Amino acid sequence: MSTPHSSSVASAQQFPISDRAREALAITLRGCEELLPADEWLRKLARSEATGQPLRIKFGLDPTAPDLHLGHTVVFHKMRQLQDMGHTVIPLIGDFTSMIGDPSGRNSTRPPLTREQIEANAKTYFDQLALVLDIERAEVRHNSEWSDPLGARGMIQLAAKYTVARMMEREDFHQRFKANTPISVHEFLYPLMQGYDSVALKADLELGGTDQKFNLLMGRHLQQEHGQEPQCILTMPLLEGLDGVDKMSKSKNNYIGITEAPNTMFAKLLSISDTLMWRYFTLLSFLPAERIAALKAEVADGRNPKDAKVLLAREIVTRFHGAAAADGAERDFELRARGGIPDQIDEVSLGGAPLAIGTLLKLAGLAPSASEALRLVDQGGVRIDGAVVSDRGLKVEAGTCVVQVGKRKFARVTLSA
Prior knowledge:
The protein is α/β, with parallel strands linked by helices. It has 3 domains: 9-236, HUPs (Rossmann fold), CATH 3.40.50.620; 262-336, Tyrosyl-Transfer RNA Synthetase (Orthogonal Bundle), CATH 1.10.240; 346-415, RNA-binding S4 domain (Structural Genomics Hypothetical 15.5 Kd Protein In mrcA-pckA Intergenic Region, Chain A, Roll), CATH 3.10.290. The protein is built from 17 helices and 13 strands. The strands form 3 sheets. Strands 1-6-5-2-3-4 form a 6-stranded mixed β-sheet, with helices on both faces. The chain has a 5-stranded mixed β-sheet with strand order 7-13-12-9-10, covered by helices on one side. Strands 8-11 form a two-stranded antiparallel ribbon. Strand 9 and strand 10 (387-388) form a beta hairpin. It is globular. The termini are far apart. Pfam families: S4 (PF01479), tRNA-synt_1b (PF00579). Residues 355-416 form the RNA-binding S4 domain.
């Protein structure tokens, strides 16, 4: 088990609260859901400023899937803000906890992963995380470092530090118990092990989504049990997807993947509503809050909201793909908006001419089904060589043509008999 850390809350109270510490608190609070306890964090900031000792900021990543979207990066952006303030950010790869499986916010257990799956996903996570954080200045850790050596005896001793009654206060456990849905004993180990990570790392602050609050508070409890100064916790909201309703999710198909092509990423960001745009600015942009407020005021006074959306899209695409890619994505978007044909489009070869328009669109990958293709025709959303297709009974003859669906989907189709 970990050696007790000698710091105490009282030691943080002796340092004066400066304007710089208050400014750091404001940066911490930007876009966050909850900071607990805020007064403790302010005292930690004051101590750090006075002593020159960086605070330790922890965020756990269970590599349960290989690809990340912008919703995942909300916490990464907050970590980067804290890193730029001079503190030590600790991306923690949960290679041990991933093999337990966390049911957070679910009504069933998340399946545990194999070691091979975890290692493959962790590599991808690390590469994508490096697009937001300065990895050279980060302290990347794996919780197997201390969890594997803990052993059965250590695990039992750790479990003795928390009661079943308190564990059942966690909402998903409570709801599953009421519904007579099975809860495996090993599921109780997940929040305990996540909390023990904070003990091992001597964390001053732990970040997580709103669905992780119980686990974050567990870290505070276990640190106190081990004689450490308890960490503060910072929860970040779940980012809404492109629809502005549900949280961003690949299963909802309302996501923007951080490794998506620059043109796709740019176009998706331009498609969000004028209202949702400001939430994206708050949670994803590195622009100063004052600059965002000024931009919002300009739009309220009549400036085209598209100008602000382009600024946001350029920033995000530049972050993940570079400035040149952002320039190209903006040109591509404007070209498509004017009805032009992009320089690079998919080449598709099909047989069976003459081919019904619905079948052609489906086979060319421009519509998920023939019936959906016909619905697009009825809406005037299909063009062949720039001309709108209005006849759902159209049969396309052999030859080569550019087929367009909506503003973003193109294919150069070569059709043979």
